[in-house]
Design a protein that fits this description.
Helix content: over 70%
CATH topology of the largest domain: MetI-like fold
Oligomer: single chain
Strand order of the largest sheet: 1-2
Largest sheet: 2 strands, antiparallel
CATH architecture of the largest domain: Orthogonal Bundle
Strand content: under 5%
Number of domains: 2
CATH superfamily of the largest domain: MetI-like
Length: 306
């Protein structure tokens, strides 16, 4: 009995799930043939001294020791990246939720508004938008020209370290379309009877928001939080174009990805750049794990009991 049960169960499993595996096959083939190899190669290169011209030379943990003990630009890149993530992600989610709640009121031509608000998310990672953003915030750009109309002299947004990072934070918040659509779908799934019952109990808008909207929207908030946090850590194009690839001014735009690119393709320190890439991967993994660990205290799903 046991000799036939195993093969039969396996055959039944594959027969039942064949369609799913068939649809996943292109991604799985691409992942194992095109992604696993470079990932494992970068891990090995992170323990070597490699500049493309000469063969990799094994140096053990030297790249990581130098990174954490002697590399001041690495620490600056961490500071800039953490500042960007901590400020831009909550601001983006709050703004996206606010717009989603406004669109959830049943305004006319909502389809056009959804498309219009989603457009920046499609174009946000492009080089053209980064160049446009640089033109907007130049000293003689559109932003300062608008300020002069009301008698204000705008600062050097891109040349002053006090303001340069904020221009990229505004750019990140401007790309709110994707989380906005997800929030809008989550809001549409909340039963209207709950709001009607709250109105009977004389609950105001603020109380309804914190007692109904936020708790029932918590899974969607968590989903958006994780996605946007990962994307923020990986931000590259805007910082690279606006800073000219150097992190200027005074490394105020030295995102971790920009520093990694600089080490790899400006100085050809491929081994060190591979070590930086793995550190970034571990940082993202750590923050994602923390988000999942804390979610059990504030994210609740409908199928949970107790």
């Amino acid at each position: 009995m046991r000799t036939t049960e195993g093969p039969y169960a396996m055959e039944k499993f594959f027969r039942r799930n064949f369609a799913g595996y068939a649809f996943l096959a292109p991604w799985l083939i691409g992942f194992f043939l095109l992604a696993i190899g470079p990932i494992l190669a970068s891990l090995w290169l992170s323990f070597t001294k490699y500049n493309i011209v000469r063969p990799p030379q094994w140096i053990g943990l030297d790249n990581y020791i130098y990174m954490f003990e002697f590399d001041d630009r690495f620490k600056k890149a961490l500071q800039v990246t953490f500042s960007f993530v901590v400020i831009s992600v909550p601001a983006k989610l709050i703004f996206a939720l606010g717009v989603a709640m406004a669109l959830d009121k049943g305004i006319r031509a909502i389809g056009w508004y959804r498309a219009l608000f989603y457009l920046p998310s499609i174009l946000g990672g492009s080089i053209a938008v980064a160049i446009l953003w640089r033109q907007l915030f130049n000293y003689d750009g559109v932003v300062n020209s608008a300020l002069r109309l009301v008698g204000l002299d705008g600062p050097y947004w891109l040349a002053d370290p006090k303001y340069s990072l904020w221009t990229l934070i505004v750019l990140a918040v401007w790309q709110f379309g994707s989380p906005m659509l997800i929030f809008l779908a989550g809001l549409r799934a909340i039963p209207q009877e709950l709001y009607e019952a709250a109105e009977i109990d004389a609950a105001g808008p603020v109380r309804k928001f914190f007692a109904i909207t936020v708790p029932l929207l918590a899974p969607v908030i968590f989903f958006n939080l994780v996605l946007q946090m990962i994307e923020a850590f990986k931000s590259f194009s805007g910082a690279f174009i606006i800073s000219g690839g150097s992190g200027a001014p005074l490394d105020s735009l030295l995102f971790f990805t920009v520093y990694l690119y600089d080490e790899a393709f400006s100085y050809l320190r491929m081994g060190y750049a591979s070590a930086l890439a793995w550190v970034l991967l571990l940082i993202i993994a750590a923050f994602t794990a923390i988000a999942f660990w804390t979610s059990k205290y504030w994210v609740h799903y409908e199928n949970e009991r107790g």
